Amino acid sequence: MKTIKNRICDLTGIAYPVFQGGMAWVSEARLAAAVSNAGGLGIISAMNADAGYLRTQIKLCRELTQKPFGVNIMLMSPFVDQVAQVVLEEKVPVVTTGAGTPGKYMPGWLQAGICVIPVVASVAFAKRLERMGAPALIAEGAEAGGHVGELNTMALVPQICDAVSIPVVAAGGIADGRGIAAAFMLGAEGVQCGTRFLAAEECQIHLTYKQKIVSAGDTDTIVTGKKLGHPVRALKTPFTRKFAQMENDHDITQEEADKYGAGALRRAALDGDEQTGCYMAGQSAGLVKKIQPARDIIEEMMQQAAALLKI
């Protein structure tokens, strides 16, 4: 299969410039290993878990693949200091970060030879992280699932590519070869896909979650949490509709939101709870039409992108 070799491939040691997003209760060792074995970069989500959980996942991933993989660290996690140390001790090849600034940890990670690729949602943040030594960035638009920023991918990616000299990975709303080709035309050198890999056969989420993704349409996601300053995109469900109603009816407090949302991601991903589960997904859910192996997902996307880019 024709491929696209560039700085992202060189930095991470992967065959195809496709990252699998770090999704809480979704991105565990088996999915990450499947994506890495397919030539992309599989990523384990450290989410809000402690050091023991992450170390177990890293060791399992290494049993399942000899290829490069990464760990996504949510910087708002109560265990962030622990997991930051674990990736050092386990010599994880790549670390991606989100929900905060990784400045406290970057010098140690970079000194240890870890490729640190933070997620950014603005030009100012991108330039700041380049100055801090980040070798690459993930520019994530508001079409993405989970925690989102204000700018959309089509506007965000070229502005960040223009503002920095390091390679940029585009994320948000990308689920097929057309999205990859568009991202490259905007100046990106890689893509990160989250929602697309929810429908991978190796993804361990509940079948109900996968079925909701492949049956979703173009308007089937909703953003909640804007009033609190922490917007999150997920599928429209009884849970998210009630959350939106709570926001509209009164000035919801962070305490109320935390109480209402506690455990909702886990209930969706592990239990398939259709009433109180939060099914995080991006707007690209409308492009995902079937459940298939991670290898087939990557190969189909790359073949389509190569044809469009005339490679």
What is the CA-atom radius of gyration, in angstroms?
18 Å
The strand order across the widest sheet is: 1-9-8-6-5-4-3-2
Largest sheet: 8 strands, parallel
Q: Per DSSP, what share of the residues sits in E-state strands of 2 or more residues?
A: 5-15%
Write down the overall geometry: globular
Termini gap: 11 Å
DSSP helix count? 14
Total count of strands: 11
Helix fraction, binned, reads: 40-55%
Low-confidence stretches: none
Question: What is the fold's blueprint, element by element?
Answer:
Blueprint: H1 7-12, E1 18-20, H2 29-37, E2 42-45, H3 51-64, E3 69-74, H4 80-89, E4 94-98, H5 106-111, E5 115-120, H6 123-131, E6 137-140, E7 146-147, H7 153-163, E8 168-171, H8 177-185, E9 190-193, H9 195-198, H10 207-214, E10 221-224, E11 232-235, H11 238-249, H12 254-261, H13 264-271, H14 294-309
Parallel strand pairs: 1-9, 2-3, 3-4, 4-5, 5-6, 6-8, 8-9
Antiparallel strand pairs: 7-11, 10-11
Helix pairs in contact: 2-3, 8-14
